[in-house]
Design goal:
single chain; 354 residues; MetI-like fold; 15 helices; elongated
């Protein structure tokens, strides 16, 4: 990749400054037209359509309210003024827009990507933790020998499936099935159904859960098997049944290992690329949380997905290249923090149990 050519801000702003005096007139005319449209809004029968229209009205009014400030900033902007490092970093860490290849100005804010990664990981853990931990408890303490030899290999085999295959399965099967289910007449009682996007947070999270289950299952089962046999025998000797022994003795005694399994599963989910790139929808925007749980059925983009999608096309040394590098750095720090938290929690529960 070639190095990015330097940009002369004086030359870039010449065309804009030449029409600077026309901007207030254009903005005023546009505001008047939009105000006329909002003054007589259409009557919508569908509650979801009405809710979306009200949200659009609010965003439009907020957009119009910014016109005077934008005009003033354009007039007063000094291209020779250097941007402080702290402002660049805070704009990146707290920015809510990621816009590239813009005709006017690119924006690199990580918040939409971070929110997307967290939402997908939350859905994945919500599905994978109960499945993985309960499967480990069943195989370790309840299942017969024949069941163990059947269940365990099949669960561990899932980890051998390539992530791109799971992503294709999500596009072709899971996404279509969820959207078709949301359009069934008996599902009309759900406020945010039917959904229009088959590639969304839930689709990506459910596929990532399938990838995280083997990790959580294997480590949780090892933790349960490492509990001293005397704990179980003492519980049975005191008259406890199997369920009481599992809930009050085995799980608390192996809690540090189970927590490690969950956090390592989280690390696997956060760092996964192909599934979220194929199944999350790749919309760089913060979901509309006013829809409640419906936000989890909206498309998002993630930190790993944006790196995989854009890194091969950016110019080396450009601001876009550096922004993607910073996304990778934030992802590294986040993963490092998860591992550190896992170590601290494991040490804490080991001490409390010991």
């Amino acid at each position: 990749m070639a190095a990015a050519a330097p940009v002369d801000p004086h030359v870039a702003m010449t065309g804009l400054r030449s029409v600077d005096n026309k901007f207030p007139t254009i903005a005023t005319a546009m505001k008047a037209k939009i105000d006329d449209l909002l003054a007589a809004p259409p009557v919508l029968n569908a509650s979801r359509a009405q809710r979306l229209f009200e949200s659009w009205k609010k965003r439009t009014r907020d957009y119009l309210a910014q016109f005077p400030a934008v005009s003033q900033q354009l007039h007063e902007w000094n291209p020779d003024e250097r941007v402080p490092a702290y402002r660049a970093v805070t704009s990146f860490l707290f920015g809510t827009n990621w816009i590239t290849a813009s005709f006017w100005q690119d924006w690199y804010g990580i918040i939409p990507l971070l929110v997307g990664s967290i939402m997908v990981a939350a859905v994945a853990l919500l599905i994978a933790v109960p499945l993985g931990v309960c499967s480990a408890i069943y195989v370790s303490e309840v299942a017969a020998r024949g069941e163990k030899s059947l269940i365990k290999p099949y669960i561990e085999f899932i980890s051998a499936i390539p992530s791109v295959v799971l992503g294709f399965f999500g596009i072709a099967v899971v996404g279509q099935a969820v959207r078709a289910l949301s359009q069934m007449p008996f599902m009309k009682w759900v406020p945010f159904f039917p959904i229009s996007e088959r590639l969304n947070v839930f689709t990506a999270g459910s596929l990532l859960a399938l990838m995280a289950v083997p990790t959580i299952f294997t480590l949780a089962e090892d933790a349960l098997r490492n509990v001293p046999r005397g704990f179980k025998e003492a519980s049975y000797a005191l008259g406890a049944n199997r369920l009481q022994t599992i809930a009050r003795v085995l799980v608390p005694a192996s809690l540090s290992g189970i927590i490690s399994a969950v956090l390592l599963g989280l690390g696997r989910v956060i760092g996964e690329t192909m599934v979220v790139l194929l199944c999350a929808g790749n919309r760089i925007a913060i979901p509309d949380f006013t829809q409640g749980l419906g936000a989890f059925f909206q498309p998002v983009h993630t930190m790993t997905g944006i790196i995989a999608q854009e890194m091969g096309e950016v110019v080396r040394g450009s601001i876009h290249y550096r922004a993607l590098f910073m996304v990778g750095l934030v992802l590294f720090v986040l993963t490092l923090g998860i591992n550190y938290l896992a170590q601290r929690l494991v040490a804490r529960y080991r001490m409390s149990i010991g």
